[in-house]
Protein: DNA-binding NarL/FixJ family response regulator
Organism: Kutzneria buriramensis
Amino acid sequence: MTAPHIAGQRTPPGQRRCQATIGVALLDQVPLFREGLSTLVNRTPGLHWSGAARDHRAAVQLHERHHPDVLLIDSALDPLGHFTRVLTEHDERMVVLTVLRDAHCTAEFAQRAFRRGARGVVPRNAEPPQIVQAIHHTPISRRYIDPTLAPVLAAADPDGQPTSGVLTRREFEVLQLIADGLENRAIAAALFVSVETVRTHIKGMLRKLGARDRAHAVAISYRIGLLVAATDR
């Protein structure tokens, strides 16, 4: 039988999927955003609210007192990722989900967040279901990237340098299905388009990723964090 989660108790990231609830905390200076996330978390089964902080010192105190499973950090309060690095270097179990302001929704910023130790990125203006999905998936993912940010990251190599172009949403969908092992005919059926249209999307995707073939495109996408390996839930 799965042991219940006890507020203040931490378990290794790999075991969090077995917990009854996920403790959520937030570092953000805007009261309305803090209250909104608190309401969202409290009304979502499987999540519980650990608290919010408006500055770095309060965030450290909150972490030491409640040990949340996921800490969401406003990108405006950690633009260079130094605070994230401090937290994650001192606690390897710390799971940081960076909430990106509009100006920070770039490949360079997202890649820097990951290099500093963040485990996920999500836009600040994301819909509530997107926020909930990010909170659920970030603890069990190597990297969690909100789907709306995927085309942006596809336009950068692992060092955050732009490649030849940004994947369209349809090209990204095709990439995901290729990674799932589908051939062109099955992809066409899944997306309700012709096989020739699928081939066109693949050509564009390969060119933009600088990939030799389908397998190379998938390998590149996993390496840059555009695709995240599926995990048992």
Remarks:
- The chain is about 45% helix and 10% strand.
- The beta strands are 22-27, 47-53, 70-74, 96-100, 120-123, 144-145.
- The first strand starts at residue 22 and ends at 27.
